[in-house]
Fold Trehalose 6-phosphate phosphatase.
Amino acid sequence: MTNGQTNCLLFGHESESSLKKNDGVLVKRRAVSPLLARSPLPEKELPVSPPMICSVSSISAPIGWLLLDGLAVRFSATSKLTFVIKLMDLKSSHSSPVLTDPAPLSKSRLGLPSNMAPYSPAASPYSSSGLYLTIPRIINGKLEDVRVNSWLDAMIASSPPRKKLNKDMISVTQLDDHDAAYQTWMMSYPSALNSFHLITSLAKCKTIALFLDYDGTLSPIVDNPDHAFMSSSMRAAVNEAANYFPTAIISGRSRNKVHEFVRLSDLYYAGSHGMDIMGPVRVSKSVDKYCIQTTDSQGKEVHLFQPASEFLPMINEVYESLIEITNDIIGVKVENNKFCVSVHYRNVDKKMWDEVGVRVFGLLKCFSRLHVTHGRKVLEVRPVIDWNKGKAVEFLLESLGLSQRDDVLPIYVGDDRTDEDAFKVLRESNCGFGILVSNVPKETNALYSLRDPSEVQEFLKSLVRWKKSTELQTEAIATK
Ligand SMILES: O=P(O)(O)OC[C@H]1O[C@H](O[C@H]2O[C@H](CO)[C@@H](O)[C@H](O)[C@H]2O)[C@H](O)[C@@H](O)[C@@H]1O
């Protein structure tokens, strides 16, 4: 590290910063040398004063990672301006407090030696309260401190650009930088396809339980949420996977809606971010007032678990109000997901995003038992209850008789912030792992990554091929 200008490389944007600091700039840094990235690496927090970010040019993402002389540095800024980052004074004493990984992989029930595990930093849980970083930016040629602390920043940062980069509009250097940033990030979150041998060696003699998110994981992100169809090849891949592994879809959509999209019967469905689960009849004898025994569309006995059932009238009321208060904003779509409501702003002019937020958060002031979380260009209004996709995974594992067992490997595949709850549960329990679907670097509690739904499909097919071949080998050994 040197004083003065330093070359930097934009890592793409991530969703939110966990950093809280009012005076000066606080950065998290992490070495990204290929050698180090393979082992659980302590993150260091580095308070920098005077601020290290001091002048501006061409970074348009509000939050992200920079590669500075081999160190990954997270930055945050309001998005409407562009930034140049120069390193002025790092004051790196190397004695700053060390943030260690809360779930050391060396203790993992996965049996994965720590030096083989892909490093994943301890991501902070996402919060809807926005960002907390003071950062200097240039306004009209003047350097000003800006407190970035709003839901608008979270709305802007909520989703990577979906459209393919237009190679005519963008320089080769920028394309190279984008790719280099992704490749560097993948050292920490390796491709689940490239790491397939490692994954199957972990899965040997274990029951894999599959948990799959829907939008952005099994279906590509599209402008109209009603058109987020699953391809027939993906349906076939999920169906085959469900023949070999207990499989559940866990979606933010209503359970009925996601079932309409997936149209497969041999799996379990959890809608409304896990607040509406139709699962197997539970072996547990404990009485739960939210759990009722019923039959599914095929007449099979199932358990229906709806921990937010008392919120139904409130959710319907807020849904009607949200339609009313946003109907003059072109492009807003309000979706009733039964126990939660989505307010989509993907098709709203960016200039109006602020207004969408003002109205949604304004209305929510009258509903203290509801809160808002951020998804991909969507505000999700949900009951304030201690339930999420992570709890849904735990609930389903227990229902299937697969919890607290060393011979079970749960794998959760998802692309969005609400999936982080599930990644975190698996990460902290050390019994399985998450796979983040993303084609841009993001902070995550997942262990592996896949670029897009087509890679998810390939991964599912590979799991089935592997399972079939191990079964054949076992049969061959048995008949010898
Ligand atoms: O948990 P998920 O299954 O991923 O559901 C999360 C939200 O997914 C849907 O919205 C997202 O996908 C849409 C279709 O591609 C896209 O138009 C939208 O911008 C995305 O946010 C769904 O419509 C929401 O209700 C879910 O909350």
